[in-house]
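User: Teach me something about this protein's shape.
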Amino acid sequence: MLRSVAVIALPDVAVFELGVICELFGYDRTAEGLPAYDFAVCSVDGGPVRTQSGFTIVPSHDLGPADEADLVAVVPGNPDWEPPAAVLDMLRRAHARGAWVMSVCTAAFALGAAGLLDDRRCTTHWRHSDALAARFPLAKVDPDVLYVADGTIITSAGTASAVDCGLHLIREEHGSAVATQLARRMVVPPHRDGGQAQFIETPLQPIECETLQPLLAQVLESLDQPHTVDTLAAQAHMAPRTFARKFRAETGATPHDWLIGQRVLLARRLLEDSDLGVDAIAVRAGFGGAATLRHHFGHRLDTTPQAYRSMFRTRSR
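Assistant: First, the predicted structure itself:
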């Protein structure tokens, strides 16, 4: 069980990325029924670290807590800066003893320098993915995903993808109910994009349009209903073609693709957290029958509902 977290702030640390790790793991939310972690912000020597925004932070620890933490997270500094040997040795020790090792954005370069990306799938910010692949040719860099979990090594792409990456890890350790509750507390979507490479998908872009947001919230509460472009357009008081264009412009997906994606996510949650049979889950998620559910599971996740339940329900309970 994940109980302790150490985050390593490298020189020229990115403030937002550090803040994401602090938000995910550094707050005591036990009063809300969420787990608490023994949390430490570390620098190489325990001394101040300059941020990319021009001010300096003073971490509470040197690298000591990282040698015992269940999760060691590294947040980005300057990707051209070589981490000191002490950091690289600590990362290798953490991996060797079975701890989770997570990089945010260009902190993947530190994991690469420690040799932890050799023969592993990994990712980083798309602007730096070519450089990561060039510097560490044994790494299997995938620039098209938000994060990659390969064993206990987790790498995430730029900025906000660290939220999805962290929620994935929390889901792995504490189950989907905890991850979903924390996501709701943070007011972010609980994408829960899976624990292995084949289950990782790039989530849809967040909805920022005030006109579509209420409609999509209603749809998410009624996925068992037979929604179509025509019915959704009518609810939005738009012509179907206008609605479809507006939907794609604001979400990056067609209404049909978005709806299927949300139904698959609901089916996954029900497979993990309920005792419902596959037929009942198919109806509840709006697929109508098990055959349609299996079709979309196979297309999107390359697995079956039964296999998915066997894997993730065992992990989360």
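Now, about its shape. Residues 53 and 232 are 44 Å apart (CA to CA). Strands lie at 4-9, 38-42, 49-50, 56-57, 71-75, 100-103, 121-122, 140-141, 147-150, 153-156. If you'd like, I can walk through any region in more detail.
User: That's plenty for now, thanks!
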